[in-house]
Amino acid sequence: MPDDETILPLLEQRFGAEVFQLQVTAxxxxxxxxxxxxxxxxxxxxxxxxxxxxxxxxxxxxxxRDRAHQNGHPSKDFSLVYHxxxxxxxAFIRLKVALGGEAPSMPTLTGLFRNANWYEREAFDMxxxxxxGHPHLQRILMPLSWKGHPLRKEHPARATEIGPFQLYDELQxxxxxxxxxxxxxWGMERQDEDSDFMFLNIGPQHPxxxxxxxxxxxxxxxxIVDAVPEIGFHHxxxxxxxxxxxxxxxxxxxxxxxxxxxxxxxxxxxxxxxKLAGIEVPNRVHVIRVMLCxxxxxxxxxxxxxxxxxxxxxxxxxxxxxxxxxxxxxxIEAVCGGRMxxxxxxxxxxxxxxxxxxxxxxxxxxxxxxxxxxxxxxMVLRNSLFKARTKGIGVFTREEAIEWGVTGPGLxxxxxxxxxxxxxxxxxxxxxxxxxxxxxxxxxxxxxxVRVEEMRQSLRIIEQCLNNMPEGPYKADHPLTTPPVxxxxxxxxxxxxxxxxxxxxxxVIPAGEAMSCIEATKGANSYYLTSxxxxxxxxxxxxxxxxxxxxxxxxxxxxxxxADLLSILGAMDFVLADIxx
Length: 581
Description:
Blueprint: H1 3-15, E1 21-23, E2 30-33, H2 39-48, E3 55-63, E4 78-86, E5 91-99, E6 105-107, H3 116-127, E7 130-132, H4 169-179, E8 198-202, E9 214-220, E10 223-230, H5 238-242, H6 251-255, H7 263-277, H8 283-311, H9 316-336, E11 345-346, E12 349-350, H10 358-381, H11 384-390, H12 398-404, H13 409-412, H14 420-423, H15 444-467, H16 493-504, E13 512-515, E14 518-519, E15 524-531, E16 539-543, H17 546-551, H18 553-557, H19 562-572, H20 576-580
Parallel strand pairs: 2-5, 6-7
Antiparallel strand pairs: 1-2, 3-4, 4-5, 8-9, 9-10, 11-12, 13-15, 14-15, 15-16
């Protein structure tokens, strides 16, 4: 019996069978409805049992009031969904709590999972759900002065539904006052027995933050006592947009989340859609998708590598690496027609088949890039100044990484060989031979080592795609997948109607819930989709790796200097749109 199937009997034995209500979902994840007052004991049990579910993977809310397909679930106005993961069992469990009323509340989980802090703040911000006992329950993505909660169904989804914006003097003064940092609100002291603390504002316009991110540092001289990251400047309502777009027309929006990951964002979304619809894609589609994703992994890592070297004082590498990134984009453009945002994957397949000559372009790059990567390794990783700025800086252990929700290279740099492509294969990754790079020290230098080796492993995967590309169709033969081939639409009226409806309205995806999970460029990326049996999603939840990674920043920067902070930020490899969505 799989490990996740042994959990329900164990929980029923400890808490009673009447406590849990089982829900069947399209993704097969064990899903249990739990009473509000039993969630904390159940979560504590799951975290402390043998082979525990010790990783709070995600936490999100849903406004259930407009939902038609309740399927016998508990009566509710809102619900909270907790995704826990067990590395030992290699299994997810989904806990759901039904909440009623206009101002629902829930006991906080911050005493059990440290990374619950930001997730609960987000649920409060978006839905107005309060978390009793939370250390600092304040908006996190929206401005403090925002009226309403954007992911509630009654909140407008388009700017045209809101009156014109006017910045009158009183509002400007109020907004300026909201930007004033008050240390006391964050439990910070302005002085201690030995010294007065200085508060330094970094960002939101600062080259070291790589975008609109604000970090307020509490300093004792040059040493960081504490830090408060302020995010949300890049928030564009990506999840809210999903409720207004069709399942098909939402695909381009995913490109803009981790905007360096390209089609990898499409894949995370489409895997969940295809689970909901029961679509099996051809093997050729799997291999094409994997090849494009790994090309984008190399492209993203080249951006990180060059800018990281620049952050710690090396100017030349960024020019060389961006030049090689263009070589990757030449392949992407030849195949997809676009570069950074190709919007090329489709429900059940890809937009079109590979063009003639694609194999020559890929073969040239596979032969060209290894020597360049060796050169970059010598130029950066063996540079004494780079080592001095990164070794022993921003250290965290495997246990700390799991507690804070770290995934991807940051987790593997702690000596933990966890990669979702290997451990929970998707899109045919089980067909490929590659290694999981690991390091042991968990510092900024080791996080760099892991990413450089990942580029070599991506090359191995791409070469296997090149040499073993299967024949077959480039999309699934399924009524809910991409529209019929255009040339057939003029031959019979049924095909023309199907094409018209699929393009204008989009497919009607069966009611249900499903989550995908992929190993994106920066860590674990997921889409948790809820369908109400309509032409657009009822709820789109995007779990991005950069969000929990940035939450950990205060913890791993304490005791280091301001200069070290730039090394820590650079080694984190975050994207602001990936944090803010």
